[in-house]
Amino acid sequence: MEYKITNRGAEIYNLSSFDLAETFDCGQCFRWETLPCDETDNIQKFSAVVRGRYTTVYKHNNIFIIENCTEDELKDIFIDYFDLNLDYDAVRASLVQKLPILKDAAKNAPGIRILAQEPWEALCSFIISQNNNIPRIKGIISRLCETFGKKSGESYTFPSAETLAVLEPDDLQNLRAGFRAGYIIDGARKVASGEIDLEALRNMPIETAREKLMTIRGVGPKVAECTLLYGLHRLEAFPIDTWIKKAMSTLYEGLKPEDFGEYAGIAQQYIFVQMRMASHR
């Protein structure tokens, strides 16, 4: 990975297979905001709080720029967060070689990368996502951060499990999270107490990790799988929602999640976009 620290921040060069809009809008995260486009240079910027740091990013002339980013921040936060050391072109090629049936799906969204989000934030966000739509999920998360997080730049940090663990479900009434409030508090308490050690889940057998997560009230297979993929960067995880269930029973009939191998989670994103695009035709 070639980069330089300039007065703009961290500039990363020759980074193929990275589309910011595709990555932030594929359902894996809920806090990236699209900023008003600068009419003078027509550059589209995006902002979010990443691991406690308010962050603005954009691409210009195929250079990926993280504004006001130091070299230490690039190495300590953003290389990992944006998965910049993984060659997604090679991953996509290996998936298609392994399963040629993926060829069409892999063409649809080659710019998606799997973000390495903070584990508790991912777990809590996907608890909130249950039986919900994207605008409402984003609204609940935004109110959660504004109410219990700390100010960071133009936004707020995601509140820690420890911060939420001392609350009662009724304390979350203003979030308008409904039945999910009790699930959020139960998850926070289990994580804060160490009953669920999220970092330990990175290295244990994935089936054991799933079972651990599903001891939290309201966490079923899909939320557990999303937490493993998007919060713990277990790229072999394969979340199954309505779109993926339909795909697996039609386009990919006979295949099981484990058939996609170590990069099943990346394949899942290609399939998800394939199904979503087909529904709009």
Rg is: 19 Å
Order of helices and strands: EEHEEEEHHHHHEEHHHHHH
* Mean pLDDT score: 95
Number of DSSP helical runs: 12
SS elements, strand count: 8
Q: Which structural class best describes the helix and strand composition?
A: alpha+beta
Choose one word for the global shape. Answer: globular
From the N-terminal CA to the C-terminal CA, the straight-line distance is: 38 Å
Protein model, in words:
This protein is an alpha+beta fold. It is 42% helix and 12% strand. It has helices at 20-24, 71-81, 88-98, 103-108, 119-128, 134-148, 161-165, 180-192, 206-213, 221-231, 242-249, 264-279, and strands at 2-6, 9-13, 33-34, 45-50, 53-60, 63-67, 151-152, 155-156. The radius of gyration is 19 Å and the shape is globular. The mean pLDDT is 95.
Features:
single chain; 281 residues; alpha+beta; TATA-Binding Protein; Endonuclease III, domain 1; 3 domains; 6-stranded antiparallel beta sheet; two-stranded antiparallel sheet; 12 helices; globular
Question: How would you sum up this structure in a few lines?
Answer:
The protein is of the alpha+beta class and 281 residues long. It is built from twelve helices and eight strands. The radius of gyration is 19 Å and the shape is globular.
List the helices and strands and how they pair.
Elements: E1 2-6, E2 9-13, H1 20-24, E3 33-34, E4 45-50, E5 53-60, E6 63-67, H2 71-81, H3 88-98, H4 103-108, H5 119-128, H6 134-148, E7 151-152, E8 155-156, H7 161-165, H8 180-192, H9 206-213, H10 221-231, H11 242-249, H12 264-279
Antiparallel strand pairs: 1-2, 2-6, 3-4, 4-5, 5-6, 7-8
Helix pairs in contact: 5-8, 5-10, 9-10, 11-12
